[in-house]
Design brief:
The complex is a heterotrimer of chains A (218), B (243) and C (204).
Chain A lengths: L1 H12 L7 H17 L3 H22 L6 H5 L2 H6 L5 H30 L4 H28 L7 H27 L5 H30 L1
Chain B lengths: L8 H32 L14 H28 L2 H33 L7 H22 L3 H29 L19 H45 L1
Helix pairs in contact in B: 1-6, 2-3, 2-5, 2-6, 3-4, 3-5, 3-6, 4-5
Chain C lengths: L2 E10 L2 E11 L4 E5 L6 H8 L7 E5 L5 E4 L11 H11 L6 H6 L15 H15 L3 E5 L7 H16 L3 E5 L9 E4 L19
Parallel strand pairs in C: 3-7, 3-8, 5-6, 6-7
Antiparallel strand pairs in C: 1-2, 1-4
Helix pairs in contact in C: 2-4, 4-5
Classes of the chains: A mainly alpha (218), B mainly alpha (243), C alpha/beta (204).
Chain lengths: 218, 243, 204
Amino acid sequence: MIALLMRDLRLAVRAGGGFGLGLAFFLIVTVMVPFSVGPESDLLARIAPGVLWLGALLSCLLSLDRLLALDWEDGSLDLLATAPLPLEAVVSIKALAHWITTGLPLVLAAPVLGVLLNLPLAGFKWVVISLLLGTPALSVIGTFGAALTVGLKRGGLLLSLLVMPLYVPTLIFGAEAARRGAMGMAVETPLLMLAGISAGVIALMPFASAAVLRINLR
Amino acid sequence: MSIWEYANPRKFLQTSERVMPVLWVSSGLLMAVGLIWGFFFTPDDYRQGSTVKIIFLHVPAALMAINAWFMMLVASLIWVIRRHHVSALAAKAAAPVGIVMTLIALATGAIWGQPMWGTWWAWDPRLTSFLVLFLFYLGYIALWEAIEDPDTAADLTAILCLVGTVFAVLSRYAVNFWNQGLHQGASLSLDEKENVADAFSNPLYVCMVGFGLFFVAMVFYRTGTEIRARRIKALMARERQEA
Amino acid sequence: MSLNVSDLRIARGGLPVLEGISFELTPGQALILRGPNGIGKTTLLRTIAGLQPPLGGTVSGGEDQIAYAAHSDGLKSALSVTENLRFWASVFGTQSIEPALKAYNLTGLRDRPAGALSAGQKRRLGLSRMMVTGRPIWVMDEPTVSLDQASVTLFANAVRAHLSAGGSALIATHIDLGLDATVLDVGPYKAAPLEFDDFDGGFL
């Protein structure tokens, strides 16, 4: 399992691995927001937590179609399926690798981009904490979507269409926690719900993803 | 005689063809009676005026929008467990009907909301939940269309339906938490105090039964079409194989 | 540990392609599958490897014993030859990749990224993967595609060594490997179409 994780991480940082693309996309989206809604700092401060969450979600989404498709194309997925590793473990590791290469950098970059959006001081902590709790769920749910569309050519758009509705609860609770934190309100309830969703999908989604992958490998 | 005999395509077609005329006629009659009764023979509401009468379209459509998804869930489970093709095709056939019902509920809601709340759209929990349900239908239908092999498509959409149900329920609670909303309470519930007045509820029941039968008739009809399309595909594949 | 296949019936895209396939593969034995293109050799191998369920019949004795080599080698072009091989070795829980490198004459290419290899060299790397799995039953689909004569000899030698060490091999190929192998022509096992009055018979 560690071998698979190390291989995925190594592939991500080598040439053509796409590491950093998600981060750059996050930056671009965030920079575009003031251009579209105006530079008024009160408004930006109010929408900053939500914009950061939406940007993180879109950046996650962007890298999903490479998550399993590359291994599908070169045949590694067939070989992994006949290896001693259960497919449930394979998809979990893949999701973990995706989180380390995409989710974690987003969490770390969010405070920097928060400055650009005039995020209130109280908000920094909660934006980081909510993203830290929520991005694993985004990666795990995204892996399910990637497994659903793995056999399709040009499945990227369909992937977004399938994954976005599944992201709704995570986004609502995550952005709500960040928003309340930034406004100095109590954040416990949405934060606990967010953590609950993350824990639930990490525990259960790999079974759905592996089942779907098995069907696609037939 | 087991109920699973109807999972045989031929038996299903024979039976549904015998039942369908009855369903079409009775659903058409009930819908016509319910709507005419509702629109013309009920008093205006003292607060909402005659706008309230859109309830006779809005509530049954919303009811069927949710029940159609529920029916797809059950049909998907039957496919996953018992591998009856008819069941998977019935789930496929129900999705477009369900999405249209969702659209009707959303549109009539907007038309009703305009005079009542002064806006076509509000991010009220119920409205938002229906919008999310619409997105789930969209993804489900798109996945069916995207996959060529019918059995693979049936398997994948069945799992999407199961997972989607869990997330749809989660979204419902998330949305409730996110915004408390202006939508009125349930129009009909077992708790008598909340109900709409009797004068409205009787035609509403008639409309609901009519919509329900209409849904069943549509699903039978569309499932029959899907079965025939599937059979043509099978025949063509066999011809290719023999050639 | 021998692999038992009895009365196997397999389908591709829902259509039955082969039926009534039975054989036993004992340690030290090699079985060559032959048959025209499109008859279902790949489907048969994928079914035996456990990637897809059979329509009927059983495959036994293959659980966690089979190493499968498909048409594509599953190589990562950004990783070097040794990194690719070491990955599969650790997935299968074995240690040494040196014998595999030596057997396929890859020692000189060990630090080259897989993306910079020629088609034949890639294939050799893909085949050397079988040696690091440490599994006794090799199931291989057209292993000699894009190999030159010398590489085919390397491959045949590797299979021979595997057999004499008590392993077995099931190979779909059209060329003569010079192995002392049983040949199974799957042509006569072409499946008859399903009857229409089966329960779900309207569909295939």
